[in-house]
Amino acid sequence: MFKKLFYHSLLLFSVFAFSQNPKLSPSTEVSIFTCGRGEELYSTFGHTALRVKDPVNQLDVVYNYGYFDFRAENFYFKFVKGDLQYFMNVTSFEDFVFEYQSDRREVIEQKLNLPLEKKQEVFDALNAALLSKDRFYTYKFIDRNCTTMIVEKINGLYGKDEIQKVDDKTISYRTLLYPYFEKYFWYKLGINIVFGAKTDHKAEKLFLPVELMHSLDKAKFDGKPLVSSKKTIVIGEEVPIKFSFFNSIYLICALLLLIVIINKKFVFNVYLLTLGIFGLFLCLIGFYSEHQELLWNYNALLFNPLFVLVPFVSKTFLKKLNIGLLFLLGIYTIIMLTKPHLMIMFPFILVNAYILLKLLDRNPLGLLPSIKKNRA
Q1: Are residues 50 and 33 in contact, defined by beta-carbon separation less than 8 angstroms?
Q2: pLDDT above 70: percentage of residues in the chain
Q3: How many angstroms separate the Cα of 225 from the Cα of each of 48, 112, 157, 214, 370?
C-alpha cells in the first residue's frame, strides 16, 4: 500500500511540478469528505479530506492532511513532545475510497456551493502547499489537525471565519471525547489519565470531523448555503461491541481488590511505588511536551510522585507523609466530582485512601485485620 501511495503521489507531484495548474472548468466540484471512525487509536475520531473533481480535465483527486511517517527518527519522542510533523498528500479518488471501503468506514461527501474562481483559488492554494514547506505542519490534538487545516483553507477563501462550530460549546473537551472510547477501555483510561486541565475547558474549538460536517450544513457564504448537496459515498459498518473482561474496568477492580485482600505491607509499598513512578512521568511529560493538553495534570494528585517515598522513610515521617497524601487525595476527589471520568478513577481513589489509612495503622470500615508482616 505504501509503495502504491508513493508512486501515485510521485506521478501527481510531477504533473503539478512541471506544468501550470490546469484551469478548472465550470463543471468542477469541490467537496469535503467526512470519514467514519476506525479501529486504530489515531483513527478513533474519524477524518476530514477535500476532493476536487473536474471531468473536463479528467481530474479527480483527494487532498489529505492526515499523513505522518512512522519511520521518522525518534518518532515516539516527537509524538509525545508535540513536534511531530504531519503532512498533506494527494491521492486519486478511487484509491482514497478503496481504503475506506476495505476498512468498512463511512465516507460522507458534502459538495460546496462555491463560484468557479473560489474553486480555482482553493485548488491553486492546495497545489502550492503540496510543493512547498506548507505541506508540513506540527500536529496538535485540538488546535491543529486534518480537520482544522481544511477549515483554514475554506475560511481563507473569504478572509473570515464563516465556518463556525454549531455543536454544543458548553461541554468540556473531555466530555465531548469521552463517548469515542466506549469500545476501548484502555484507550479511555490512558487518555483521561494523561490529559490535563485544558481538556476540561469548554469545547469551543472546531476540531472534530463530525462537528465540521454539522457546521458545514449550517454555514453560508455570501448569504447562500455553503453545502449544495450531501451524500454517502461509502456505507460504514458498525462493529458490534463484544464484552471483554480484559478490556473493561472490571479487570482494574479485580486487580485492586486482590492487592487489598493480600493485605501485605510489601505489596502496598510496591503498588504505591509504581503509582509514584507513573506520577513522576505525568509531571515530567508536562515540562517536556509541547502538547497543551498534557499540562497541569491534576491526575498527579492520584498517581502522586510522593508515593515513591513511602517505602523508604522512617515510621515517624511516614505518618506525616501519609496524612499529607490523604489531604492531596481529598483535593483530587473534590476536583473529580464534576468530571466525566470520575467512575473509572474511583477504584484508584478508594484503594489509595484505604492503603494510606492502613499504613497509618488505621482499619477503614474494620474490613481487614492489621497489615500482615513479611517474614524474614
Answers
A1: yes
A2: 87
A3: 20, 9, 15, 13, 71
